[in-house]
Amino acid sequence: MAPFDLFSIGHSNIPADRLIAMLRDAGANAVADVRSIPMSRFCPWFSAKNLVPLLSRAGMTYLPYGKELGGRPRDQTLYRDGTADYEAMARRPEFRAGLDRLSADTVGFRLCLMCAEREPLDCHRCLLVARALAERGSSVGHILHGGAIEPHAATERRLLALTEASGDDADLFVTGQSQRLAAAYRRRARAVAFRAKPSSTGANRGA
Predict the structure, then answer these.
(1) DSSP assignment of 64-103, as one string?
(2) Given its phi and psi angles, is residue 206 left (phi above 0), alpha (psi -120 to 50 degrees) or beta?
(3) Cα separation of 138 and 188, whole Å?
(4) 51 or 203: which carries more pLDDT confidence?
(5) In the chain, count of helices (H) and strands (E)?
(6) What is the pTM of this model?
(7) What is the pLDDT of residue 198?
(8) Element (DSSP H or E) covering residue 178
(9) CA distances from 6 to 31, 85, 93 (A)
(10) Domains of the chain, each with CATH number or no CATH
(11) Pairwise CA distance, residues 20 & 41, whole Å
């Protein structure tokens, strides 16, 4: 298995013991919860108040990161046309401080970022947090529900392929690789990031 500095996972609607098993298989011993709102109405075992003792019984540590690295900003200037702007969020001092703390925690823990979405490309843990970590030189492995661990670089290749296959790639072929990738990130984020609504119930994606 390729060495990873940290992992990521989406809990989705799987049983709690399945999540623990996947974490153990990856060698993770701590969960960095990057949900802005660390609760789940549909899977209450993943709400923080239940997840903390669950992880503790498994010998794992729970670390809350939603305030710094969550995908649902409270600052309205961090939205573009009502959608969370990941690029603007990544420039915030609070976000960079969260990454610094995350990097420090990797010294004592084998960390796994956790959010709700099963697919990394549907979630800010990949499109925002893992992207920023990779740019800093960290190696991130996305734990897929089929059991494989996908290197973030491979996830980025899937992102480019999805963008090109969608027909939204008109300007991606005339620019360099980094520009193509940035454009693909931007388009995917606009499609899946949290959308602010006046009567939001917290059911939006990209937590």
Answers:
(1) E-HHHH-SS-S-GGGEETTEE-HHHHHTSHHHHHHHHHHH
(2) left
(3) 22
(4) 51
(5) 9, 8
(6) 0.91
(7) 62
(8) helix 177-192
(9) 10, 24, 22
(10) 6-192 (3.90.190)
(11) 20
